[in-house]
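name: query_chain
kind: protein
chains: 1
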Amino acid sequence: MARKRYKPEEIVAKLRQVDVLQSQGQSTGKAVRQIGVTETTYFRWRREFGGLKTDQVKRLKELEAENTRLRR
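structure:
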């Protein structure tokens, strides 16, 4: 089965969903399973995108793509 590739905006939305579920009293593991990702993926996303807003994530990805292009 092919893995789904999430866009940065979708990742930020899923991180917010987990925050909401946790504030309602669910454990991290249960909340993460409910949004359909593994705990490892969640913690990696949180480390990478944790404090960013959607527009900041978009800008970060644009800059990373530009840096990659310029290095070639």
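note: The chain has a mean pLDDT of 88.
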